[in-house]
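are you around this afternoon, could really use another pair of eyes. what follows is a protein written twice so to speak, once as letters and once as structure tokens for the fold. i want to understand how the tokens follow from the sequence so walk me through it. anything you notice is useful, everything is just below.
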Amino acid sequence: MQIGAGRDGVVSDPNIVPLIDVLLVLIIIFMVITPTMSNGLPVIVPQPAPPKAIEPLNPNTVVVRVLAGGKLMINQDPVDWKALGPRISGIFSQRAEKVAFITGAEEVSFAQVARAIDIMRTAGVDHIGLITTNISR
């Protein structure tokens, strides 16, 4: 620190060392005291919604299942690959809403499911929904 009059007049530089010391002491105090003061506000954590019960399907809903070994089922009735198209077109011939669903077993390749989708589209189904069990993979 310079005191006194120089050739340009009075020069005074502030000494900030004590200020830094005080700030460091305050930081240390807050670092030590803050973790021990763990009296927070009570919080209610949101809980996930309970799983909804699976609604039974409408009796008019058509679900085509592609099972292991190349087997097919329309709802609960087994059907052959060759008979899938005529059966689907027969089911939807008198319906205005042509919506069906398809699901495949885990061990079935998607190529077989795509083949069934193609047959269903050719048979006149306008909208095909995919039913999956595990979408996290």
